Amino acid sequence: MDDILKECIDKMQKALSSFSIEISKIRGGTINKSIFDDIKVDYYGAQTPLNQLCNINTNEASSIILSPYDASVADEIVKSIQKSDLGFNPNNDDGVIIINVPPLTQERRGELVKFLNKQSENYKISIRNIRKELNDKVKRMFKNKDITEDKEKSDLKIIQDQTDKFVNLIVIETNEKEKEIINI
Fold it and tell me: What gap in Å lies between CA 37 and CA 50, rounded to an integer?
């Protein structure tokens, strides 16, 4: 496989994977444990990922139960969740943390769809920036006479085709997530 094509696919695939991870954190019809992936808790002076300090269970779409492996850290877990932008108000019930998840209102769904579309646009821009970077690289190679004019045209077309493919994949994922948010 051509180096430019490989670099193009690798970079665009990383952007798509990052987008998929980001939108998995947006609450849709069910609660996904991945919404807690970015939360860090101060555990004896070290910022420790929440999922390493407790067992996370979801009870349908109405509540989340966190069972810390060390009950002494429960208050720190509550503080970390409150500081996050998830909008949850956790309760420490004798070392077990219970989060009652309010149902999504129509207004909140609209906000989530707006946020989703903003993220989608940011990642499409990211894909287009990768295209620009690689197009510039190919043009420099042609200017330096490292590749022929036919090779330049071929590489530019391949880069554009990959750009179209990855932007389309982002659009598909966005549409699926939007349906999940709206049709709860």
Answer: 7
Nearest to 128 by CA among 77, 89, 170: 170
The mean pLDDT values, 10 residues at a time, for the chain of 184 residues are 85 94 76 78 87 81 82 86 80 84 81 92 96 94 90 93 96 92 76
Contact 48, 40 (CB under 8 A): yes
pTM for this one?
Answer: 0.73
Q: Which value, in Å, is the radius of gyration of the alpha carbons in the chain?
A: 22
Concatenating the DSSP letter of every residue in 5-27 gives HHHHHHHHHHHHHHHHHHHHTS-
Token representation of residue 149: 């004019």
- In whole angstroms, how far apart are CA 91 and each of 37, 64, 86, 95? 19, 11, 15, 10
**Residues making up the chain, counted from first to last:** 184
Supply the pLDDT for residue 19: 93
